[in-house]
Design goal:
The chain is an alpha/beta fold and 235 residues long. It has helices at residues 2-26, 47-66, 76-85, 96-106, 150-164, 172-186, 190-203, 206-219, 224-233, and strands at residues 31-34, 38-39, 72-73, 110-119, 122-131, 137-146. 57% of the residues lie in helices and 16% in strands. Strands 1, 2, 3, 4, 5 and 6 form a 6-stranded mixed β-sheet that branches. The radius of gyration is 18 Å and the shape is globular.
Length: 235
Amino acid sequence: MRWRSLRSLAVAAGLSAALAGVLGAQDSRPGIAVLPFVNGGPYGQDPENYQALEVGIQQMLTTEFAQNPALRVVDRSNLKNLMAEQDIGASGRVDAATAARLGKLVGAKYMVMGGFTDLYGNMRLDISIVSTETSEIVRADKVTFKRDDLFSGVVDAAQVITVGLKLPELPKDVQTKREERAREINKTQAVSYYTRGLLYADRGDKERAKELFAKALQEFPSYTEAQQALNQLGS
């Protein structure tokens, strides 16, 4: 039975690789994917809030990259399903070689991975960029900000990564609007509700996830990401 399971996995991986190759041939834009961020043992808030940030930061970074039409961004759900199929990441940090293998399967050129710490309101993102072509870490960056400025910190991180990899940047006016929007969201509790909603959605608790996404929208009615997440869960 184990041999059959491994064989099925190999076939699935082969099909994923073939599909990624076809998609890559059709779309020449550089592909980028973001892995879940590792909780570095922060202090200052409820542990659930930090569990939520593992997927929350991942999704927020993915969303920021998706604002750039010059990039091809791998959807978080596709990456999550692939990691679940291959039982990857359940026990902690994914190494560079594993990240590169995943990236090849989803047709990404770069894989973003890293962790976060929060020391009573002072947050830091430690970011590593893996090239799927070489399986090596080609960049390492650090972004610091106040916890209350989380959304702005993620927007800045996306810009740091884009510039560091010499990828096409967002048009200046679009970047300015993203930064202004982030400052407005930071004034509310919307990000906390949104990231926790993602956590519960991943756990399969749709009703709790819907409740949290709705609260995010009450805090910030123009939070399109929360509205999209709510729509995906259905009525």
